[in-house]
Specification:
alpha+beta; MetI-like fold; 3 domains; six-stranded antiparallel sheet; five-stranded antiparallel sheet; 59% helix; 14% strand
């Protein structure tokens, strides 16, 4: 039997298409590895930020200004000896490479910076003293040092080991007082201020309508205004008392270089000693930090605290965008597929829709700013809110215009997906419905559209996936670095579409590229990026679940 020709076998293998199948499989596998690798990197860098790392003490070489350096090791790298020598640091002979450590030394109000590099040629040893403590502050970042005592109204009440329970007690008291102050300022006084502003606008509206000065409506407004002023003054007095109480307690601390100073308990967020915490205590601390990240407001130029306003703004904007884009996209697809004459004009429209999907998003932002904000919003202000002018109500970037801009950005995706779903429905189904006496509208509404629902959901999924991560257009039409209040609250009309809002994508851009403290902001960028990915995946999974249920329902109905 003759042996097979190797050249013919190789040629037949290529003609069978197997090389391209393996190439495609390998490319997909490589892409998945890259995606999961990126997610793993973001997860490790982001979630590791919340762990209470031990505080190291470096024993510096002789000749330095201070004998020790104190802080948390956040990074380590190997550099050339020449690079270290260029900084004026002596390197032992024969060393070509030197390890150096990035130490988060904190105490920015004392040192002027949070981070500092130390090469191994600058210190002789490293240890982890158990009596070191970390104080997270609302301003000036972390404080690293030693707790000396606790004072109440300037009098020392506890020192040594007794200072810790006294500090925890006063820190809990501070949290209660802060919660009361926040409730008064944000809720009670906020409602009074909103009422006073509404009264001012009502008086202005009466003036624009030409009401005489002796109109009894002015007197009614004045009476309500006086009662609100009395409430406001009473709340201001209560706030003054609370602020006097919250600044009562202070702690005496000592830095690593021996300087002693006082910190007001009012400025502290939490205090802990990581070097003597066990695993359970560290896990409890880790959980509290993650809860703070998800539920609290940002602080320290967005480099500390939480991102709850950004989470809320992102989800609310995506939901509003979905409500706005779905009807427009579906109606346009129905017209193009079911009613429009399939001629040259229809083909041109389809080409235009496909081209719109490739327009850079910043162009939509410019259009939204010019048309929605300045034109539509300015017209609404002149027609319905003349008493508020010249201060704009809807003639300024806000939640509504952001949602509309992103709806315009994603409507081509919904149109294409819906039209594709409509084209897949067999013509026999339409003809059978018409043969049974149904009108074209009834056939469309009761037969065709329900069967095309999975395709609509596919378009919505693609729209959500793109809109949730867009940042460039939002920078022009509504997103801000820090929003004073949420777009949804308990005050009438509850959903305030004219308000600006925070967004996770812009938060990542702001913290990563606009922060004055890049090293402190870097871990928060990873954590926020991971959170944005999780939110997008969650929204998509919810839409995919609904789509699959609809698909199973109508597939069962067909069989």
């Amino acid at each position: 039997m003759a042996a097979p020709d190797p050249e013919k076998s190789l040629l037949g293998w290529f003609r069978s298409g197997m090389p391209w199948i393996w190439l495609t499989a390998g490319t997909v596998s490589f892409s998945l590895i890259m995606v999961f690798g990126l997610l793993l990197l973001i997860t490790l860098r982001g979630m590791g930020h919340f762990w209470p790392h031990d505080v190291a003490r470096l024993h510096l070489i002789e000749g330095t200004d201070v004998p020790y350096a104190l802080g948390q090791i956040v990074d380590r790298e190997t550099v050339t000896a020449a690079r270290v020598k260029a900084l004026g640091i002596e390197v032992p002979p024969g060393r070509d490479f030197v390890d150096r450590y990035l130490l988060k030394i904190g105490n920015r109000d004392v040192n002027g910076f949070d981070f500092k590099w130390f090469s191994e040629a600058e210190f002789t040893g490293m240890d982890y003293p158990p009596d070191v403590f970390v104080a997270e502050r609302e301003e000036w970042g972390n404080f690293y040092g030693y707790l000396e005592g606790v004072k109440e109204s300037g009098e020392l009440v506890a020192s040594g080991e007794q200072a810790w329970p006294a500090l925890r007690e006063r820190l809990a008291r501070k949290q209660v007082l802060k919660a009361r102050i926040s409730a008064i300022e944000k809720h009670t006084m906020g409602k009074v201020s909103a009422t006073l502003e509404r009264l001012r606008l009502q008086r202005r509206a009466l003036q624009l309508d030409g009401a005489p000065t002796d109109d009894p409506r002015y007197a009614d407004l004045e009476a309500v205004g006086r009662s609100q002023d009395e409430i406001y003054n009473r709340l201001s007095e209560e706030l003054a008392v609370l602020y006097g109480e919250i600044v009562r307690d202070t702690i005496t601390v000592r830095t690593i270089d021996g300087a002693v100073t006082d910190l007001n308990v009012q400025t502290l967020v939490r205090v802990f000693a990581p070097n003597r915490m066990n695993v359970v205590e560290k896990l409890r601390h880790y959980g509290s930090k993650i809860a703070e990240f998800l539920l609290d407001d940002p602080r320290e130029a967005n480099t500390e605290g939480g991102v709850f306003p950004a989470i809320f703004g992102t989800v609310l904007m995506v939901l509003l965008m979905s409500v706005l884009v779905t009807p427009f996209g579906v109606i346009a697809a129905i017209y193009l597929r079911e009613y429009a004459h399939q001629g040259t004009l229809t083909r041109i429209i389809r080409i235009a829709v496909n081209n719109l999907a490739g327009v850079p998003s910043v162009v939509y932002g410019v259009f939204g700013l010019g048309f929605f904000v300045y034109y539509a919003g300015g017209t609404i202000d002149q027609l319905f809110f003349p008493e508020a002018l010249p201060a704009p109500t809807f003639g300024t970037p806000g939640m509504l215009w952001s949602s509309l801009t992103l709806a315009l950005l994603t409507v081509p995706v919904v149109i294409v997906a819906t039209e594709e779903g409509l084209s897949r429905i067999p013509r026999s189904i339409r003809e059978g419905s018409l043969a049974l006496g149904a009108t074209k509208a009834e056939t469309l509404w009761r037969t065709v559209l329900p069967m095309a629902t999975p395709a609509m959901m596919t378009g919505l999924i693609l729209a959500v996936a793109r809109a949730a991560g867009e940042v460039a257009p939002l920078m022009m039409v509504g997103v801000v670095k820090l929003a004073p209040s949420l777009p949804l609250d308990g005050s009438f009309p509850f959903l305030h579409l004219d308000r600006k809002f925070m967004h996770l994508g812009f938060h990542i851009f702001d913290v990563g590229f606009q922060s004055p403290n890049v090293e402190a902001a870097r871990p928060l960028v990873y954590a926020t990026s991971l959170l944005l990915v999780i939110i997008i995946v969650t929204l998509n999974l919810a839409a995919i679940t609904i789509r699959n249920r609809l698909r199973d329902r109508y597939n069962a109905a067909e069989t």
